[in-house]
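Q: You know discrete backbone vocabularies at least as well as I do. I have my own habits and do not want them to colour yours. No explanation is needed for now; the record alone will do.
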Amino acid sequence: MSALSDRLDAINAEGRAALVCYLPVGFPDVDTSIRAMVAMVEAGADVVEIGPPYSDPVLDGPVIQLAVAQALERGVRLKDAFAAVRAVREAGGEPVVMSYFNPMLQYGLDRFAADMVAAGGSGVITPDLTPDAGEDWIAAARAVDLDTIFLVAPSTTTERMHLTAAASRGFVYATPLMGVTGERAAVGDAAERVVSEAREAGAPKVCVGVGVSTREHAAEIGRYADGVIVGTALVRILAEADTPDEGIETLRERVAQLAAGVREARQ
């Protein structure tokens, strides 16, 4: 069992889903992004997804694309993600990194896995890597007991669902909608179906992301998923704030609302 699995088990024993919150490193700057991640933990986030900026974030919507582009322009690099991992761990949150594969490959898979563990990270989400193409990464991660988290969607076949469940550790990341990340007015009926199919395929834990932005969304998904993932809505708060401190305070308030949502979901 990994630290991430242990945390999810402990949260499940409380009778609720985990709140998983995403922010990119370096937006609007490195210091503010790390302070924002710590504030999310203090406000009730259980797991923090730390996003290293990448020049071709093909699965992210316009809000996150703009944020990571600005981070790259300011010189943010993969090493800054490890500083964020340390800060989240020290704050009491469970840190995972959500990274496209090319930066990891360029950094060196063994080196990346080792540096993640040294910083206190417990897992890596790879949105553009499938298990059958990721044997080298899986081997590097397994060597240091780092969780490998892969994605499933409504279009995932039964065969691929089993393959993904077998290759994933910590949790399987379920996207209930086709397309890029972003806020949605409603989560839709596909989310519960994808969670059910992933569990039938053997996934021990399934967390749902893409489209979650409100307390009501968190409560809806928290009824049946092991975790509720929120990203774009949180990045937007920092993007629209007049000052970094104002953004962090508003972010803290939103995360507290989302945390209340996952805690009331199964009551």
Remarks:
- The CA atoms of residues 22 and 49 lie 4 Å apart.
- The chain has one domain: 3-149+213-262.
- The two ends are 28 Å apart (CA to CA).
